[in-house]
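Thread: quick sanity check before group meeting

JM: Hey all, I'm pulling together slides for Thursday and realized we never actually wrote out the predicted structure for the chain we discussed last week. Dropping the sequence here so it's in one place. If anyone has concerns about the input, flag it before I start.
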Amino acid sequence: MVTDQPAGRRVVILALGSADAGCGDSCGCGSVDGTHSVGTPAVRVPVLACRDALTAGGARVTTVTATSDAEIDAVIADLDGAPRPDGLAWPTPADDPTLVVAMDSDAQLRAVLRRMVRRWSPPSSRRPADLPSGRTVPDLPPVGLLPLDPRGDAGSKVPDLVDRLRLPRDPVAVAAAVLGGRVRRVDLLRTDAGSVTAHGALLGGVDASGHAAAWRGRVELDDTVLADGAEPVLACAVANADGYAHLDDLPLAPAADPSSGTVTVSVAVPVRARSRFSLRRAEEPVHIEVRRATGRAVSVTPTADLPYVDDGVSAVLSRKRAWWVEPAAWGVYTG
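JM (edit): ok, ran it. Output follows.
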């Protein structure tokens, strides 16, 4: 459905219509696990409420449903700036048109951000002089985030990124934030698999009883080795924002800051406490030690196939994977 008004700021509300509108198998990180269809009230009601509030504020609103990467790309292409002498595709510095992403998960937001990075990041051989220092992508356009569940994740162990950025959830409040034009710049994590991480990744699986299953792998953050591959690891969190990952009731990255210009990495390992009353090592009590550090880039090299979740998308890591931070690469409209 498309609704246009004769004048005013142009806003595009983009909803993802199926699980096909995701990263795809080619990037090795899974696809979006969409749980709503666009025709259901779960999507229709928030989108229409936001559209009506934007229209009442003088905006010209278009609603688009994308069911593939190609359809996401068509929306993003409309955000291109003027042609450059170097021929690179580049986002417009203005906020017209403005993109609002209707999302039911961090995974759907990641699907859109990934396509933005794919369109606008220049090849290393053609790095332009106006690319921000310490970055491989230009300033991505700010977006409005429209949660399809306005109630939020109260009581959830995995709050979504909208909650962690303290953004409005009500559709009318989202519209007011977009029309107000106040923007917060946010870090983005890129990966060597060609994808991005907006919130965080949790590496490690569970056993048949539902408890964390130990695995082995090397975890390096900049020049610091957090796990050497010889000791068992219960979980590793690569976090851009706080609240993403827990091991049972233990928060792994409670201080991760999405505007710090760094990635927070936490590694949880089981440690046996030596006791003079223990006759055998197997009788020694075990506690969890969490090693936390921040830096610019992290790599994880598992010794065997390793299940992991990246922005809510489940996949299996079978080789070395690296994440690095792109400081303040994208932005959100705040209340």
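AS: nice. The first strand starts at residue 10 and ends at 16. The chain has five helices and 18 strands.
JM: adding both to the slides.
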